[in-house]
Design goal:
alpha/beta; Gyrase A, domain 2; Rossmann fold; Isoleucyl-tRNA Synthetase, Domain 1; 5-stranded parallel beta sheet; 23 helices; 13 strands; globular
Length: 602
């Protein structure tokens, strides 16, 4: 994809190298070492090149280097007859481009990402739900981050494999199983008219409520809270259920299969609704034994050691980390044990060049330990494991807690956003224009949700405000959708009026697009490839959300300043239509990367 800055980075590097050569100084400045910036004031030019980096090498002040570089480049410009202008302004070399020439170069190309990751196999794990509760707001941030990063990497040429680990075993699963076994009385999601994953989650809340009551009683009798939680009869029953499961008890396994299937079926409905998909599901129940085997191998090799209570542990003081338990004294696995088996199994299935774990920032220590231990066990590919850590997401009301039933169910949140969008459509009396108001409202809801969740850098904690996310003004998903719908409407109108038939698209004269608003929009389009590349390199979709907002603002100024269908000149009208079409193409492409539906009518 054409980027007007790249040829000038080559020219500037050549000029600086010529200055070095004239001074008899060894050293070569490569084009990718040249920094290109946007001048703060458009009157200063289109590209600014700071000269600070060369001051030490040349033993001259940056303003003097800028002047010398400008003189070198002036000769090249005359030879090329490019129409560009260069001038030194303090420590900067500023370039003013030939707008007509650059407009034609930018708009005569296909807008697509650079294939910087061609040939790379990248596995991305995200979502990682537990089968004791439905997906909630926290999962939604994880899901859209994982899905968006996967799409961005794929757009940059990588062979991407999206995977999901289903946490379908462990004490947390046994808690909902126990509550259902004691109180369920044969009820099913169908009999209760409840979405199946929500049905399972309600039993987890039931267990937590009863456990709290038992713990409170023990605390009243003088037992400290930590001991009370382990001594509570209900917790002992859950631990026994876990032991029965690991021993293969038939009745326990049947109950586990039934409740897991309810949970997973419900989650898959939510994935489909939000546009999230996976190439493969892994299940902890199928991999945790592999992890135990690896721990025992490490024990035999002396990498790990057995404690007096029988637990297997590792001393990580040499890595400035703590001691870590890998198998409990009763022989049962913990999370990190299971993660050994899962990682090993994945690499056997699909030998990746890189593996990205999309998991919340509270698990940073866990992944440090996991990656170190896999390397200690002799797996070279462990060096290519990466934890994409992201911050917590909460509501203005405060932190959510699954066990207390205060989490925001994913489907409930989307339903609420959809209903709010539908009310807006009805208030503006747009039902007839949008076609199916319910479907359009759903797509607006998904755009509002995904854009809001991706807008901050992943590392930041955030508050999700439903009302703010749904605004049709400002930096929101619905605002961007509205821009796309506005362009679609204009192109339809142009087709109806025959304006597009005056000149064939390939014959549009883009050299006519020289006004400030047109030029700003063209420069914004030219920056798309760089935005996608930076998002891929940093694993950060917020680079694209920021780009989209700037592009939309640039289009809004262009739309306000430049008549399109009524330009007065068919050739100019055609050029502006094709500029608008290019914006629509980029919007569609970028929307896909950040999981936002494109709407032709709103």
């Amino acid at each position: 994809m054409y980027d007007y800055r790249e040829p000038w980075k080559i020219k500037v590097s050549s000029a600086v190298n010529a200055i070095l050569n004239d001074a008899g100084i060894d050293g070569v400045i490569e084009p990718d070492q040249v920094i290109a910036e946007n001048p703060p004031n458009p009157e200063m030019g289109d590209i600014g090149f700071p000269m600070f980096a060369y001051a030490k090498l040349l033993r001259k002040g940056p303003p003097q280097i800028a002047q010398m570089t400008a003189e070198k480049l002036a000769k090249i410009i005359v030879e090329e007859k490019s129409g560009a202008k260069v001038q030194a302004q303090g420590p900067y070399l500023n370039v003013s481009l030939d707008r007509a020439l650059e407009a034609k170069a930018v708009l005569s190309q296909k807008f697509s990402a650079e294939k910087i990751l061609a040939g790379k196999k990248i596995m991305v794990e995200f979502s990682s739900p537990n089968t004791n509760k439905p997906l909630h707001l926290g999962h939604l941030r994880n899901d859209v981050l994982g899905e968006s990063v996967s799409r961005i990497l794929s757009a940059c040429g990588a062979d991407v494999r999206k995977v999901c680990i289903i946490n379908d075993r462990g004490i947390h699963i046994c808690k909902s199983m126990l509550a259902y076994a004691e109180h369920g009385q044969g009820k099913t999601p169908q009999s209760e008219g409840v979405k199946s994953d929500r049905f399972v989650g309600d039993w987890y809340v039931c267990f937590s409520r009863e456990l709290k009551a038992e713990v409170d009683e023990l605390v009243k009798s003088g037992v400290n809270k930590d001991d009370a939680e382990t001594q509570a009869p209900l917790m002992k029953k859950a631990q026994e259920l876990l032991r029965k499961w690991e021993a293969g008890d038939g009745e326990t396994i049947e109950l586990w299969k039934k409740m897991n299937s309810w949970a997973i079926d419900g989650m898959k409905e939510t994935y489909k609704r939000t546009g999230v998909s996976f190439d493969k599901y892994y299940f902890e129940s199928e991999t945790y034994m592999l992890g135990k085997d690896e721990v025992l191998k490490g024990l035999e090799k002396g990498i790990f050691f057995r404690q007096e209570d029988g637990a297997v542990a590792v001393d990580l003081s040499g890595e400035k980390l703590d001691k870590k338990i890998l198998l409990r004294s009763d022989g049962t696995s913990i999370y990190i044990t299971q993660d050994f088996g899962t990682a090993i199994n994945r690499h056997k299935d699909w030998p990746f060049d890189k593996m990205i774990y999309v998991v919340g920032s509270e698990q940073q220590y866990h992944f440090k330990v996991l990656f170190i231990l896999l390397e200690k066990l002799g797996f070279e590919w462990a060096k290519n494991l990466y934890h994409l850590s992201y911050g917590m997401v909460n509501l203005p009301e405060g932190k959510m807690k699954s066990r207390e039933g205060t989490v925001v169910d994913a489907d409930d949140l989307i339903d609420s956003l959809r209903d709010m969008a539908l009310a807006e459509i009805r208030e503006k009396e747009r039902e007839g224009e949008v076609g199916d108001p319910q479907k359009v409202a759903e797509k607006i809801a998904i755009a509002a949700l995904h854009y809001f969740l991706l807008q901050p850098s992943p590392v930041k904690d955030m508050l999700f405000d439903p009302n703010e996310s749904l605004s049709f003004n400002g930096n929101t998903g619905p605002y961007l959708q509205y821009m796309g719908a506005r362009i679609s409407s204009m192109l339809r109108k142009a087709g109806e009026e025959g304006a597009e038939k005056d000149i064939a698209p390939k014959e549009a004269d883009f050299s006519l697009l020289v006004s400030d608003s047109e030029w700003d929009l063209i420069k914004s389009l030219a920056a798309y490839s760089s935005a996608v590349r930076e998002a891929a390199e940093n694993l950060d979709p917020s680079q694209i959300t920021a780009y989209l907002y700037e592009l939309s603002k640039a289009f809004s100024r262009f739309y306000h300043d430049c008549p399109i269908l009524n330009a007065g000149d068919p050739a100019l009208s055609k050029a502006r239509l094709e500029l608008s079409r290019a914006v629509m193409f980029v919007l569609k492409d970028a929307f896909h990367l950040i999981c936002i539906p494109f709407l032709e009518v709103m």
